[in-house]
């Protein structure tokens, strides 16, 4: 059987031919379903390209089901799971970043959780999108939980080596992660060096809060940027809308 990219992956590639993309990450442990639904609708109105759902702690079970169902009711954007482990799977999502934390010290986060989740993904019929996931300093919660050996910020070649290895292992996306809420996003020089060696799309997230920062990250070579905290922690839906408008302006220019 020949494996072809699924609907969500094709959507990503088709969009990338025209522009850079912005995905909004919602953590089911931080937002209630009603809020998630409203935020998702707002994201679609403002022009985000997809909603990612996941988190390192507590983003599973009923909480995850309810949040993803609410997001699907609120918007028609693709919902992509961004799981912290095999617990982060719900039948209500469209796709899942089937990711391996390549620079973890613990094989559970490289292949273990993946094996435990694989049959669930198949049973639910969710589209798996294989992705190399790399934690860059400081790494924040996900770095600690995922037992990563975070790549030093001033060592872009190490990141590039891992990214290329991920591509050669068959992964179709590379994600550079500074960690949710990181004081600074992944350094532009590292993004540039990684981008120069890989052929698959490059996702960058963690610590991107403003349109200016989004612009810097995209200019350095990111194809897709991910923001979570900036939208989730806004004081109101209107403030979140303004934030997102600014970020998207930086991405789409
Ligand atoms: C975390 O990269 C994402 O996995 C988003 O990070 O919450 O800092 O935007 P922020």
From TrEMBL:
InterPro entries: GGGP/HepGP_synthase_sf, GGGP_HepGP_synthase, GGGP_synth, IGPS_HisA/HisF
Cellular-component GO terms for this entry: cytoplasm
Gene Ontology molecular function, alphabetical: imidazoleglycerol-phosphate synthase activity; magnesium ion binding; phosphoglycerol geranylgeranyltransferase activity
Binding site for Mg(2+): 27, 56
Gene3D superfamilies linked to this entry: FMN-linked oxidoreductases
An individual GO BP term: glycerophospholipid biosynthetic process
UniProt: sn-glycerol 1-phosphate binding residues: 175-181, 206-207, 228-229
One Pfam short name: PcrB
Cofactor section: Mg(2+)
Main location group: cytoplasm
Keyword terms, alphabetized: Cytoplasm, Lipid biosynthesis, Lipid metabolism, Magnesium, Metal-binding, Phospholipid biosynthesis, Phospholipid metabolism, Transferase
Domain of life: Archaea
Annotated catalysed reactions: sn-glycerol 1-phosphate + (2E,6E,10E)-geranylgeranyl diphosphate = sn-3-O-(geranylgeranyl)glycerol 1-phosphate + diphosphate
Listed pathway(s): Membrane lipid metabolism; glycerophospholipid metabolism
EC number: 2.5.1.41
Subcellular location: Cytoplasm
Biological role stated in the UniProt entry: Prenyltransferase that catalyzes the transfer of the geranylgeranyl moiety of geranylgeranyl diphosphate (GGPP) to the C3 hydroxyl of sn-glycerol-1-phosphate (G1P). This reaction is the first ether-bond-formation step in the biosynthesis of archaeal membrane lipids.
Family: Belongs to the GGGP/HepGP synthase family. Group II subfamily.
Annotated NCBIfam families: GGGP, GGGP-family, PRK04169.1-2
Listed name of the protein: Geranylgeranylglyceryl phosphate synthase
